[in-house]
Amino acid sequence: MQSPEAGPQNQDGGKADGNAQKHAKLAKIAGYARLLRTWLNPNWIMALFTVVIAGIGIVQACIYSSQLDVMRIDQRSWLGVKFVPMQPILNNPVSVQLLVNIIGRTPIKNITGEFTASYLETSTPIDFRSREELKAAGTKLSEDTPLWTKFSTGVLFPNDPITLPPFTLAEGSPTKPVPILWDTKLQERYSKGEIYIEEHGRFSYKDAAGNCHWTQFCNTITARDQGVPSKIGEACAAYNDIDSNK
Questions:
Q1: How far is CA 51 from the centre of its chain?
Q2: Residue 110 has pLDDT above 60, yes or no
Q3: pLDDT attached to residue 2
């Protein structure tokens, strides 16, 4: 049998639970309010804006730097080398020619170059070392060392190509070179693919702003229907290069 006092006690207990829940909700809301006041602190807001502005500045600096690089590349000029096609003529000296052209929008200056040409056995790779590098390596220059020719000029302007003087294959000392006469024996070996002609060199120059640049080049010449071994061809192709200065 239920006691008369049971009903009122349960009712009071329910009210107590409801009050506790309200207090818990109020405490949670108060906690959120304190957290919001912390985040709305002027110092925190200034710090957040500073971080955001710094991030935007870094992004803008990267974009500006990239745009400057594109502008420099677009404005600078390159020295291009074109090989004039040739085939040796029987009982005549062998000469090769280069066509130099400036590609870009601005002139270049202080151009200096050094290049050579020779005929080699198809089993002999091209020696890309310059005379200075051969001397530095302790190699004694002899009559078998390929002869080099130098080229220099002051200023070249864009889209105004010039053809360099012919370079004649020669042997002997640099002071007394003797042109090589392309005789019947050489022609027979050339036609069989036993020998080939190579030409390579390097040009250095400055752009209009005074920045240093270089272009190096290589080419092989063979008889019709003949070619050079793949390793020699790949090495020659890899030697063709330009600097990456902006």
A1: 35
A2: yes
A3: 47
Q: How far is CA 11 from CA 22, 35, 221, in A?
A: 17, 36, 110
Contact present, 112 and 151 (Cβ < 8 Å): yes
Per-residue model confidence as pLDDT tens digits over 218-243: 999 999 989 999 999 999 999 999 99
pLDDT given at position 1: 44
